[in-house]
């Protein structure tokens, strides 16, 4: 799946440069602001749901590209296309459109759209609206847990997580850091969170981190519990029941429930690291993709990636597929796309 400002399209999985797309969908002047995908489930076909800057939500049959359903939703003032030439930040970043996919969450699939003051949830197959929640204007970042929708609201000047059941929209609880008090500073009241163990960037996240030493897990019922293993770095990754940590040239796997060390291996890696339910993915110093078994630390495979003189700007992992966005070594954010990205096809898709 690919996107630019006004287009969404699909290509064959291992398409060489110049291959025609399976299908494409174009709108103008509206811009693509969010994309989520749902695989086939039971008799339901795979679906791609696209959110546009004018508030149109369009569901496309993933295999054919024809429209399954459309509806209108509220947008955010910040809704615009952020993907530059490759579209990866928009396709995989899900900052305004979120999913719960039944294969992982154990519940019916749900697509959730977040606006400035309203959140709407739909059945991605039929387009039937499941629920709607009004939110105050002081409404911050959103994401989904494995069976809840989470949003940060400003309550009496304190950032507070509000949780809603993803299937019904019913309130499932609230949470603030336990160390906050009446004497907390303004900066402490405006605490920042980092998401952990997400299926995509902000969807189906098992938990979140506040400060660098506190990791919390959101359970299916909306309750929040502190993870037993203290994380000292936001670069820790969770691979199933293993916490993966990088320290002093080593990669270490720790039991998630006790913190006991399970394995340790030398780390020949650049900064980029990602994980899914059972595998840790490392970009080696030679720009090869090393796939490490999360439970044993064994390198299961090393995938040679094309080209050598590039850096990885981002790496996304979903269901065993790894997407790497490549930039030139001296690339700067303000550079134009021609000098910023590596080669004519800067996005690499790999699997172990």
TrEMBL record:
Gene3D superfamilies assigned = YVTN repeat-like/Quinoprotein amine dehydrogenase
- The Pyrrolo-quinoline quinone repeat domain extends over 116-270
Q: Which InterPro entries match?
A: PQQ_b-propeller_rpt, PQQ_rpt_dom, Quinoprotein_ADH-like_sf, WD40/YVTN_repeat-like_dom_sf
Name the UniProt record assigns to this protein: Pyrrolo-quinoline quinone repeat domain-containing protein
Q: Which organism is it from?
A: Micromonospora coerulea
Its organism's taxonomic lineage begins at: Bacteria, Bacillati, Actinomycetota, Actinomycetes, Micromonosporales
């Amino acid at each position: 799946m690919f996107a630019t400002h006004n287009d969404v399209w699909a290509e064959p999985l291992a398409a060489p440069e110049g291959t025609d797309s399976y299908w494409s969908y174009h709108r103008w002047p509206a811009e693509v602001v969010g994309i989520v995908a749902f695989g086939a489930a039971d008799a339901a076909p795979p679906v791609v749901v696209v959110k546009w800057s004018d508030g149109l939500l369009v569901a496309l049959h993933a295999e054919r590209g024809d429209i399954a359903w459309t509806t209108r939703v509220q947008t955010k003032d910040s809704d615009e296309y952020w993907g530059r030439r490759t579209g990866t930040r928009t396709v995989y970043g899900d900052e305004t459109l979120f999913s719960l996919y039944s294969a992982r969450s154990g519940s019916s699939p749900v697509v959730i759209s977040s606006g400035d003051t309203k959140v709407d949830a739909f059945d991605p197959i039929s387009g039937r609206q499941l629920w709607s929640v009004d939110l105050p204007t002081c409404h911050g970042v959103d994401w989904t847990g494995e069976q809840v929708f989470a949003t940060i609201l400003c309550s009496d000047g304190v950032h507070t997580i509000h949780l809603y059941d993803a299937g019904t929209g019913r309130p499932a609880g609230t949470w603030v850091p336990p160390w906050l008090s009446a004497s907390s500073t303004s900066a402490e009241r405006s605490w920042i969170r980092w998401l952990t163990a997400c299926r995509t960037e902000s969807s189906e996240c098992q938990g979140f981190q506040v400060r660098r030493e506190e990791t919390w897990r959101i359970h299916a019922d909306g309750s929040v519990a502190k993870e037993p293993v203290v994380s000292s770095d936001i670069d820790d990754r969770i691979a199933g029941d293993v916490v993966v940590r990088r320290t002093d040239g080593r990669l270490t796997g720790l039991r998630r429930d006790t913190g006991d060390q399970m394995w340790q291996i030398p780390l020949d890696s650049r900064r980029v690291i990602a994980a899914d339910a059972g595998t840790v993915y490392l970009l080696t110093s030679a720009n090869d993709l090393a796939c490490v078994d999360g439970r044993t630390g064994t390198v299961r495979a090393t995938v040679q990636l094309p080209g050598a003189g590039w850096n990885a700007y981002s790496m996304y992992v979903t269901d065993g597929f790894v997407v790497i966005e490549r930039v030139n070594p001296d690339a700067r954010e303000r550079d134009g796309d021609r000098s910023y990205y590596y080669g004519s096809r800067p996005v690499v898709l790999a699997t172990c």
